[in-house]
Amino acid sequence: MGLEIRRFCVRYDAADTAAARAAELFSEELRDRGVTPSADGDGGLAFCRKPLASPDSYEIRTADRIVTVSAQGLRGMIYGYSHFLRKTEYKDGTVRLICDIDGDYAPDKPLRGHQLGYRPKNNTYDAWTPSHFYRYFKDMMYFNSNIVELMPGGTDDGERNELMQLSENDMMYECAALADTLDLDVSVWYPNCEVSTPEEAAELRAEVLKKMKRLNYVFPPGGDPGDYPAAEFLERAILTQREVQKIHKDVEMWPSAQKPKHIPNWGQEFIRVMREEPEEISGIITGPNRAFMLDELRRLLPMRYPIRFYPDVTHNVRCEYPVHVFEDDWHYAFASTMGRESINPRPTEYAYMHTLARRYIAGSVSYSEGCNDDLNKMVWGYLDYAPDTPVREILEDYARVFFVGADAEKVADGILALEKNWFGDPAENPLIEKTLDIWETLAAENPQLARNWRFASFLFRAKGDAVIRRRRVFELKLCALARKHMLAGEVEKAREVLATPFDEAYRTLRAELFTLAEILFETNGIQLDVEHFHGAAPERGAVLETIDLPITNRTYYAKRLEAVLQLPVSEQADAARAIVTHETVREDEFVFSIAEDTMKRFGGKPMGAYLNFRGDSASYNDGSLPVSLLGLYDDYAFRCQLGGFLPGQDYEIKLMLSNRRRDPMPKTELIITANGTEIYHGDYYGGRADPQYDETWLAGKYISQTFSLPASVFVNGCVELCVEEKTFGVEFSEMRILRAEK
Asked: Contact at 8 Å (CB) between 270 and 289?
């Protein structure tokens, strides 16, 4: 279409309050883009009220260089002008519409929004003022969100921190009032964290929520947090609905089927109560720590109850959707340094997850702990409105509304490249350098974006990924050379190699991360470390706390060699050689590391299995362990098939188990079978212990257990192993199958 307007006018009926408000908001957006609306323009945009099927629907028609947005009220008008903003470019006060946007638009899902919790544990929102929230509400509505989910105080968080200018409840009230000015629905996530009777809890919630200017939904989670049996949990939800509805007559109650981990059969009891069809409940939410997979929940739940999805778009590890969710194979170098809540644009992966959920749900309100996931929120939210929209189109729209003046296609390429950066070993991914070049070129071409927090976020990620890659490439070379010296018994030469400093280019790039972190904190409250920016903890998005953690065995080797030097000189050469020989086994033996090999070694992660990770914890990843011990398999059963063992040879399985001993220790029943033959049945820690091995090689952080694997169980050198514990689970980092000692 290519409509170009030099003198832009905004038209509306002054008697129509919704149209007047939409015109006011839209004019502010134009001024932010360097366009001053003119009374006698040569084209522009008009707002018109029109009865449509939904307040979320809108129509766009163009005639005589005027684009008219028609909607039932303010919300639809905001969506309409946001559509216009997504498809326009701005230069020197001129507006250019890049394509024909005429059409009728209606949402695929009625529920579309994001949770923005003002609480101490997140990585951004606790530093916000009401004006930050108000701006972000409008940003969400660029992509047709209609719900913001807020949080009260007194939940599972700690005390109000130094960043929080208001109490949790006061901010919730302010935000609800601001959302109302945009016709944005308000939900409140309200867990059962206090000790009270169901009646007392209902009265407390009504008292807290009565000050809300707007309240459309209440969401009590069944678990995470929450510790009540399902029947009592739902009783509390029902009583709360009755009390709150006295104040907010149209409020809806949406409890979640998220189960407390320690209550068996919680899900079955939940469904039993829901099949009584309590009228106080409008729908059910499902999300992390769910009692049922989505398909099963829809089959079990009466059809009168729609399902709202609560997707975790914010976390990378130890979460519902880990990076590369079906494989869970995010390389430990990234997982250690970028951690759980780093800046994580994953548009194509989340679009795929949305496709899997779409047919079961009435929409989504995403789980977010800060602006590290900003891109994911916008993608998921818009797919709830228009699910057939190509991901690339959404990314180019994102670029046009947030990076005014930048080349939208280049930005989309850069975002997609950031997602691709996280595939495989960073040392083997040269795309990382090309991604950095894209973002540095965009930065040079667009100085106006220097303090744009979204742009700074992506630039930070591009530079951070490059820091990780360059360090890993450099250190892997050092480690290879150091191993040669260790095998030769040359301790000092190995130490000298490992002490080689980084070059100036690396140090400069690493320093640039802090400069960007300052911009991100100053412009949007994003907290990338604890000391300077008041991050809640390293795993709460404070990437500068973890970016330098070990990603190779360089630190491990250096620490081992320090210990070697404490030995008598006559023993040092053999001790140095042992560091290397411990990493290798005979050709017929086998070593499997969750961190280094990932479950791809056995064809992929089993459906429903959980892979834990400890590499982003400085207490584990401190150089006392090799990087091979940073990952954990954590599920009720582990299965694998292996071949290549010697006929007639007895072997042993050595498992490096996490130390989960408790006092009192629960009853456990570990069963190990080999080709269907039971080779062990007993206590979880009932294998042969090896305290000397644990002290020497596991730094006291794991417990090795050894089990016999006799020659009689093998079939032509092949074995299918199953390690199972049905209540406690199996949690191990490494498995070794070694020849049995004679």
From this structure: no
